[in-house]
């Protein structure tokens, strides 16, 4: 079984490699000598360094209290989540899944071996509670590939105790700096090892090519977008990166990860449609369909969870006398019955060939885009025209909805307007770097409109669910009174949203400049 540990640490260098006296640090009652541990770690990556490019660290380490396999994800400067799995000869399946979106079908193999003699000190308070672990590491690094060499150095590492106050590290930092110790120039031992054991470069100092013939990670990165095509591709590249980077978070079931990954698929699909004059739709339409499929798989349980949460919150807000019958039990039973997916199903999708093929296709799209003539045009002209077209479609749909009487037809028209509003918001997002304030203002306005229309659509869906729940309760001989109360409240929410729409739309129309 893999476990997760939040690692908050800072690394330092010292000319004399010594550890200054830390008993003077505020809150430290004693510095306990814990002895020297011999650590032997082998770091893994693909031949073209995909994990390193994504700031991920994968190692197998023996020695110390936490020997085993470790996979580290960056969270913030000096903060990483370390996923641990027991020691084994081969990469554990749980960790292999967490790197799959980055490595795909590529093999991970040893790249660097680090052997460290770790002299450990515990900083404890007056009650003997651990505040931080401080170590002086004598490190030897050996490159295991190509004609790389070896390197040696000494570093000081300060790691906050689990649940500790991060501000404590500032106090230690102040004492270390006063003693002449300086922050490390490298973010990690692996980063330093790779830099100091790097194979000799080819002629004229050019980085060696990846095995697939593309430049090594970081080489030839695109400069600031200039053309309309540059801007669209930058936006699509960001969505591709979001899908790849959120994959491990979805597998770990981190909060909001499924929703954020789903939004990235929608943004990419929207860009295909909005910027059809920039990218050839004969190439992007099939990719859009695959993104639609992925969004559907991600939303199997998401929509039901949102609806259940809304119903639960509405029920919690009711005065107790208005709750009659086993409403909460009925709601739980209904929610379980409508749940169409599971964690196991979603992980199977992410491990499947279809999903990995989609990621490869997205890579090819941004690397070798099917650009049309307009892609070379000035972004201020091409992007603005696309955004105006999208906004025009929103306007037509909103006005069509407002012309209809309340009822099912208006509900459907407002839902269509909501979908077009999201598309316009995303197309404006793409244009912000080129168009500046007007596009940013439109993003804000469309987000506001999307919220209003979204609340109306949520009410429509909630009322449908309440009708279903009431019918089930009636068939079981239960009171349907509470469902009627909730239905009336949802109906009122929809009426308020519809009543607010004309003024909101008038404000948006007056403020739109794109």
The count of helical stretches stands at 16
The largest sheet is:
8 strands, antiparallel, barrel
Percent of sequence in beta strands: 15-25%
Low-confidence stretches: 203-221
Global mean pLDDT: 92
Secondary structure elements and their pairing?
Blueprint: E1 3-13, E2 30-45, H1 50-53, E3 57-62, E4 68-76, E5 79-85, H2 93-98, H3 100-103, E6 109-124, E7 130-143, E8 150-160, H4 167-178, E9 182-183, H5 189-196, H6 228-251, H7 257-274, H8 281-298, H9 302-316, H10 327-338, H11 343-351, H12 353-367, H13 379-402, H14 408-435, H15 437-475, H16 481-511
Antiparallel strand pairs: 1-5, 1-8, 1-9, 2-3, 2-6, 3-4, 4-5, 6-7, 7-8
Helix pairs in contact: 6-7, 6-12, 6-14, 7-8, 7-14, 8-12, 9-10, 13-14, 14-15, 15-16
Characterize the structure shown.
- The structure is a single chain.
- With 514 residues, the chain is of the alpha+beta class.
- 52% of the residues lie in helices and 18% in strands.
- The chain has helices at residues 50-53, 93-98, 100-103, 167-178, 189-196, 228-251, 257-274, 281-298, 302-316, 327-338, 343-351, 353-367, 379-402, 408-435, 437-475, 481-511, and strands at 3-13, 30-45, 57-62, 68-76, 79-85, 109-124, 130-143, 150-160, 182-183.
- It has an eight-stranded antiparallel β-barrel.
- Helix 6 (228-251) packs antiparallel against helix 12 (353-367), helix 6 (228-251) packs across helix 14 and helix 7 crosses helix 14.
- The protein is globular.
- The model is unreliable at 203-221 (pLDDT under 50).
């Amino acid at each position: 079984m893999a476990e997760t540990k939040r690692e908050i640490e800072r690394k330092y260098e010292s000319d004399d490699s010594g550890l200054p006296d830390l008993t003077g640090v505020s809150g430290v009652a004693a510095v306990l000598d814990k002895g020297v541990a011999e650590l032997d770690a082998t770091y893994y990556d693909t031949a073209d360094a995909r994990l390193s490019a994504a700031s991920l660290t994968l190692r197998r380490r023996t020695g110390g209290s936490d020997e085993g396999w470790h996979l580290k994800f960056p969270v913030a400067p000096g903060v990483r989540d370390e996923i641990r799995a027991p020691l084994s000869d081969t990469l554990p399946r749980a960790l292999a899944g967490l790197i799959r979106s980055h490595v795909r079908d590529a093999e991970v193999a040893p790249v660097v071996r680090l052997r460290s003699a770790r002299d450990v000190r515990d900083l404890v308070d007056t009650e003997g509670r651990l505040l931080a672990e401080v170590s002086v590491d004598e490190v030897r690094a050996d490159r295991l590939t190509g004609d790389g060499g070896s390197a040696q150095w000494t570093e000081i590492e300060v790691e906050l105790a689990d649940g500790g106050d991060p501000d404590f590290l500032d106090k230690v930092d102040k004492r270390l700096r006063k003693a002449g110790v300086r922050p490390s120039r490298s973010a990690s031992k692996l980063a330093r090892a790779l830099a100091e054991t790097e194979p000799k470069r080819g002629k004229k100092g050019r980085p060696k090519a990846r095995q697939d013939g593309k430049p090594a990670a970081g080489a030839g990165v695109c400069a600031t977008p200039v053309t309309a095509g540059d801007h669209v591709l930058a936006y699509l590249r960001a969505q591709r990166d979001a899908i790849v980077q959120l994959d491990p978070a979805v597998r770990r079931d981190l909060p909001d990860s499924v929703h954020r990954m789903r939004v990235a698929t929608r943004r990419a699909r929207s860009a295909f449609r909005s910027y059809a004059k920039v990218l050839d739709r004969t190439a992007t339409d099939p990719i859009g369909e695959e993104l639609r499929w992925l969004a559907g798989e991600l939303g199997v349980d998401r929509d039901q969870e949102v609806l259940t949460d809304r119903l639960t919150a509405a029920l919690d807000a009711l005065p107790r006398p208005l709750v009659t019958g086993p409403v909460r039990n009925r709601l739980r039973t209904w929610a379980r019955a409508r749940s169409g997916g599971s964690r196991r199903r979603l992980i199977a999708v992410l491990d499947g060939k279809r999903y990995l093929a989609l990621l490869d296709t997205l890579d090819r799209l941004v690397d070798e885009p099917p650009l049309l003539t307009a892609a070379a045009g000035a972004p201020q002209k091409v992007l603005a025209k696309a955004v105006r077209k999208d906004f025009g479609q929103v306007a037509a749909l909103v006005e069509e909805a407002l012309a209809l009487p309340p009822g099912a037809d208006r509900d459907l028209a407002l839902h269509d307007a909501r979908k077009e509003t999201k598309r316009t918001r995303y197309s404006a997002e793409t244009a912000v770097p080129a168009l500046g304030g007007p596009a940013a203002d439109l993003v804000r306005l469309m987000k506001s409109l999307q919220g209003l229309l979204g609340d109306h659509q949520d009410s429509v869906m909630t009322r449908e669910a309440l009708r279903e729940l009431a019918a089930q309760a009636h068939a079981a001989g239960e009171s349907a009174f509470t469902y009627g109360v909730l239905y009336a409240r949802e109906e009122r929410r929809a009426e308020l949203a519809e009543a607010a729409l004309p003024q909101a739309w008038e404000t948006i129309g007056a403020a739109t400049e794109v």
